[in-house]
Design brief:
By secondary structure, the chain is mainly alpha-helical. The protein is built from 13 helices and 7 strands. Helix 9 packs antiparallel against helix 10.
């Protein structure tokens, strides 16, 4: 068991069994977790993975979403202002940043697209149309950049080298995340009365590739994200989604402990466990979703932060004692989806469709 374990209550039972319908997180638990995220936010608005570490655009936006879900709207908007201020002329952001500048200059396409999810989520949290109008040019440039990278096969390369050369393959997880981002971008376009037919075409084609031609992506089937992300983004739905999750569960669910990051290693991460819970919730399996979220409780610290993961046989945190903002964010967002604390909760499991 990780050190400084702060149990929220013994609610967990066997897979799929709900022992309590009580909220997964009470208000008294939400506030310190939001504090742990804000503690790593720099004066510029950038939210680091952990103090002294680096940040990436995807996890930075996820942390902003979690802050909004906890009612920290000013802190969330400071994070989006960082995105606006640091967007490149191309519409992209670099892969990694520190408090002092760029750490890794390459560009990850799904990280660039994710700003659309954050802005749509913030709109649902706040109903602040002025915020949407301010952020729209940032969203539009980001999605135009990503869509503009489509290859002749219709795939979107997962990354672009610092010299502007695209990587030669696409990833299933990244493309699934882009599907969700495009849906949110199109919802924002509809809200503002803007037409983006190229986004709609790219969305439809990428969904078809995920649904019917997953072999067209670079093989990463050791990784749990390639298992649950096609369901999480909605490319797989209904009975097909449930069958897909059932087929992968023996490979990736590690007893009562949550979701393995990779199939052949005995360690779990709280963030992937929460994301997987959202996929189960989207597929209509709320009991399993609740069970998975509750499986993250041993990774909660006494001050409300969350350890990134732990090695199950040894009961040791991994990476060693790392407490990451993106993990705390994933827990806040997943519990909101199940507890329906905010007006944005539904958006986490039911992406808007054009």
């Amino acid at each position: 068991m990780p050190p400084e374990f702060a149990p929220l209550g013994a609610r967990r039972g066997p897979l799929g069994l709900v022992e309590s319908a009580a909220p997964l997180l009470e208000a008294a638990h939400i506030s310190p977790t939001a504090d742990a995220i804000e503690a790593c936010q720099q004066p510029s608005g950038l939210i680091l993975w952990f103090e002294g570490g680096h940040a990436d655009p995807w996890n930075h936006v996820e942390a902003a979403m979690a802050l909004a879900s906890a009612g920290r709207h000013s802190a969330a908007e400071a994070a989006y202002e960082w995105m606006r201020a640091n967007q490149q002329a191309s519409g992209s952001w670099h892969n990694y940043y520190t408090a002092h500048g760029i750490k890794d200059a390459k560009v990850d396409t799904n990280c660039c697209a994710y700003v659309a999810v954050g802005v749509w989520h913030h709109w649902l949290c706040t109903a602040d149309r002025g915020f949407v109008e301010t952020m729209w040019p940032t969203v539009a440039r980001a999605l135009d950049f990503v869509v503009g990278l489509r290859t002749a096969s219709g795939h979107i390369p997962w990354a672009v080298h610092a010299d502007g050369t695209p990587w030669p393959y696409a990833l299933l997880t990244g493309s699934s995340s882009i599907v969700h981002s495009l849906r949110c971008g199109l919802a924002l376009a509809s809200l503002l009365g803007r037409a983006r037919p190229a986004w709609a075409r790219t969305l439809a084609r990428t969904e078809r590739q995920i649904r019917h031609r997953p072999d067209g992506f670079e093989p990463k089937d050791r990784w749990a994200m390639d298992w649950y992300y096609p369901v999480l983004c909605g490319a797989l739905d209904g009975a097909q989604a449930r069958a897909h999750l059932a087929a992968g569960a023996p490979k990736f669910l590690l007893g009562d402990h949550g979701v393995r990051c990779v199939a052949d290693q005995p360690w779990v991460t709280a963030a992937e466990t929460c994301e997987c819970a959202l996929a189960y919730l989207r597929a209509g399996e709320s009991a399993t979703a609740r069970w998975l979220i509750e499986a993250t409780e041993p990774l909660r610290t006494v001050d409300g932060a969350y350890y990134t993961g732990w090695v199950v046989p040894h009961g040791k945190t991994f990476p060693h004692e790392e407490q990451s903002t993106y993990t705390a964010a994933a827990v806040l967002l997943a519990t909101d989806a199940l507890d329906r604390r905010t007006a944005a909760a539904e958006a986490l499991i039911t992406a808007p469709r054009p």
